[in-house]
Amino acid sequence: MITLFHASAGQGHQKAAEALHKALLFQGYPCPDPVDTLDLVRPAFRRLYRDGYHFLAKRNPRLLEILYRKTDSPSRNGLFHSGRMKVQKHLAPGFYPALRSRCPDVIVCTHFLPLELLWKKTARPDPRSIIVAVLTDLLPHGLWIHPHVDHYVVPTEEARHELLREGIRPESIHVMGIPVDPRFTRRHPAAETRRNLGLPEKPTLLVLSGGFGTAPLSRVLGSFRSVTGDISLILVAGRNKPLQQALESRKNDFPFPVRIMGFVDNLSEWMDASDAVLTKPGGLTISEVVSKAIPLILLPPQGGQERRNRDYLVSNGAAVSTDLFHAGRTSVNILEDPERCLGLIRSCRRIAWPHAAESISSFLIELDRSDRRLP
Question: Do the beta carbons of residue 15 and residue 181 sit within 8 Å?
């Protein structure tokens, strides 16, 4: 059996697990629903882990960057590391019963928390169980790297080289992309989708804040005050209700149509309706946009993993970056430059892994079958 574990500290980890689950079911593999590791920990730890990340992302991304750097190369054999692992084990009393009840042959983690809880061989219901880490950002971080991990699924060749430098065996590293929902593997005509969604037939920009609405969209919207282009603007505030209400109160201040929405479960359609996407550089969101080959404009990162995502995409010509003050003008300049848009689209197609979920699920099924053949 294959069991998928994620942690809802960020929307992307959950979406990656759900994409793999859907791909496994599509291939006829009877995989149980993904497990949110934070549902298995003590309530206080869950609040600290989930809300702490969101608070820092919104209020103090510089501190988040510092924490990212400090934890990027932890000592995996020292007293601090073993002590932290023991504390986390104590704070996650539901994890091991959940693991034993499923008795998986292949344990797949799209977040590093379940990987850390598996740090001792005795944590596995069966010592032969195979542990697979599926990275959800374009480059790895030290918290993902552990000697007990059997396989790493990574999205880029650069990620593979970084793991090799950390001493990971070449045969344990598989460059297969970041898994996205099949809806993001194809793009429907923009004009038709705009009609279906009731949008005007104008150059359209989609602005995203992340699933939990941590991007500063109020400041982003303010950057469009000096914009005079004939455009259509769509802002998605995610699950951040106060942000959505604040944006709604200002949408009539502009000479072009502005649509404000909260969390949407048909994000793929809104992307299809758009000529460009302005977003923070979260791993899953950028993978979805790149898979659809839509011109991508990146807001300032919230934390080290987003900084590295941004730098990778910009250096590969698949995105342009902007600051909050110039976000509006930069976005309109992209919309009004067909040649630059075409260059971004070509670069997206060159680096995209649109069928990563299908490829990774096939790999996981083969691992499960090979494990069953072992004596």
Answer: yes
In what side-by-side order are the strands of the sheet with 35-36? 35-36, 2-6, 106-109, 130-134, 151-154, 173-175
Is the dihedral angle over the CA atoms 56, 179, 109, 164 positive or is it negative? negative
Instruction: Provide the domain count of the chain.
Output: 2
* Per-residue model confidence as pLDDT tens digits over 135-177: 999 999 998 998 889 999 999 999 999 999 999 999 999 999 9
Residue 326, SS3 per DSSP: coil
Do 368 and 288 belong to one domain? no
The answer on 160 and 13 residing in a single domain is yes
Q: What is the pLDDT of residues 245-277, one digit of tens each?
A: 999 999 999 999 999 999 999 999 999 999 999
Provide the residue range defining the domain that includes 42: 2-180+355-373
pTM for the model: 0.92
10 Å Cβ neighbour count for 100? 13
Q: What are phi and psi of 333, to 5 degrees?
A: -60, -40
* Residue 326 and residue 268 share a domain: yes
